[in-house]
Amino acid sequence: MLTIAGMGPGNLALMTPQALEAVAQADALVGGKRHLAQFADFRGEVRVLDADIPGLLAWLEQQQRRVVVLASGDPLFYGIGTRLVAHFGIGQLRIIPGISAVQYLCARTGIDMNDIWLTSSHGRAVDFDALARARKVAMVTDAKCGPKAIAEALIARGAEACWLVIGENLGLDDERIYWLRPAEVQAEYAMNVVVILNER
Questions:
Q1: Strand partners, 8
Q2: Which end of the chain has fewer CB atoms surrounding its CB within 10 Å, N or C?
Q3: How does pLDDT run across 71-106, given as a tens digit for each residue?
Q4: How far apart are CA 102 and CA 162, in angstroms?
Q5: What is the spatial distance between Cα 149 and Cα 151, in angstroms, rounded to a whole number?
Q6: Quick check: 166 and 147 in contact, CB under 8 A?
Q7: Which of 99, 132, 152 is the last residue in one of the domains?
């Protein structure tokens, strides 16, 4: 059985008991290095989740054991879960949801999620015009498009008055949350999520 378990923002305390139980019963564990490091006592086979997704899919097809794939945040929110559902079909999978980094950031800051536009810059071209027009956006960022690039694009489109709420290393010991105007965003940030609150 192939299980995809949401890790939440990356802290074991934020994983659901069901997800932790799935890991405890697994014969093999797949995940990013940062996630696998939190299961140092795991005694089964360990496989690092890297950019070789075709290789991972071929390996998973051969498995007759209980395999758990660790997904950052929630598996179906711009995560590995979407790719695995497309390949295997939902009937071949068990998906255990996790807390997304966006949920976590909004909970820590009191930002209402009811009217938020959820998006990501992972593997896609960012529509900065749409970001500048939207009233409230939450974006999972990547190395190519982080807070500084977002801030520069918003300034270029006249959205200087908005707030960027930047959640860095959420759920970890070095978590930081910043409320900044676009002109104040100068630094490079570690793994982060950005909420844009456009006051126009």
A1: 73
A2: C
A3: 988 999 888 999 999 999 999 999 999 999 999 999
A4: 18
A5: 5
A6: yes
A7: 99
